[in-house]
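Please review this one:
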Amino acid sequence: MCAELRPEEVRADGRIVIVGASLAGLRAAETLRAEGFAGRLTLVGEEEQPPYDRPPLSKQVLLGKGTAYDTGLPRRRAVEAEWRLGVRAAALDGAHRQVLLSDGGHLPYDRLLIATGTRARPWPMPDEAALEGVLTLRTADDAARLAELLDAGPRRVLVIGAGFLGSEVASCCRERGLEVTVAERGQAPLVGALGGTLGAFAARLQRAHGVDLRCGVTVTALTGRGGRLTGAEFCDGTRIEADVAVVALGAVRNTEWLDGSGLAAGPRGVACDAGCRVFDMYGIVTDDVFVAGDVARFPHPLFEYQMLSLEHWGNAVAQAEVAAHNMVSPGPRRRPHLAVPAFWSSQFGLNIKCVGVPSFSDRVVIAQGSPEEGRLVAVYGYRGRVTAAVSVNRAKWLEHYQYLIETAAPFPPPPGAADRHEDAVPMPSDVPDPAVLSHGPTVALTGHLPDRRLIWLRPGGT
């Protein structure tokens, strides 16, 4: 949190609307009140539930260690807001500063925060997606239904996509003693986020735990009988029988409601500056519309000002706090969102943690431990400097590597730990083009290209 502002330095009145009532929306609302905003505050959320925590849905909930509806987010403070839950934002009228709602209502604002996040990418064949037993995992309702299906003891579970979500689901299935097949279009699990070296490690790990892992294949059809899933067909001509299929093909950013708004919003998210102010479609920064969380695209100087799109719990919190601070602060008191990305995953008995952006790399080195012992730190570099580190059951070293990232330390890193391999040889990081994967990486480098082409008409000419 920032230092206290004097009352005269806070834009304390007016109307602020937050579209998105999940983690980022809640933390932004709390920060606004903590920093002195005393005006009217409204939060709009598509789900009827109050804000809840999503990471436990693919971990504890699927293992029966809690229910999907017991994951509510703790409140840091009372936000004294109007909650509009169970209603979607349908459109944005920027000219008149109002959010149009799906129930026909509208909300005027002086400042707006977009925190609409993402939704699960559905199975592309609607008839097959409608089969009983086919589902995605994003919401508490999704998790409750999947836990119920797993409790029933299906003969086999099919997981389509081996990113972090798909891998965590597969891990829970094996811990329950269920047979599971994982289909991954890429060369290995987690390859989109961590590259080929750790992807190969993840593949060995899954197979060692009894997963029927099929890489380099796609599911061509989900089959059913009487409206229920019975199995799947693969591009290599093979088939399996399955009672449950979890579609883990990545996320879709919730930006459709912004079509026609004039903002730089599209399938890759909502583009903003480092202070979370949204760009319009011509690249001009707005001063009354901000964005935070999974739906945001923002530049980061540690990664050559590439526009990053992150689906991380920690990023949603940090960015929401920065956005809220800047919404009520004068220009000289605003601050940038420059936090180093970090995320974690628990699967197959291992704790995987990451700092930085592994996909922003050309080389990787196993700096500590080894894949054989199941405890390691992999350090990633790009153009001769450290850009990321991933630990497997060795998280205590990540603070050291985060410092190397923040200081643009040279790659490969010098020995800085007792068990650092003196003869460690950097290898190609083997990060694939995300376009060839069946799931989205946890970090997307979206470059500098606009979301649409603009046609400029000059007066008096063509």
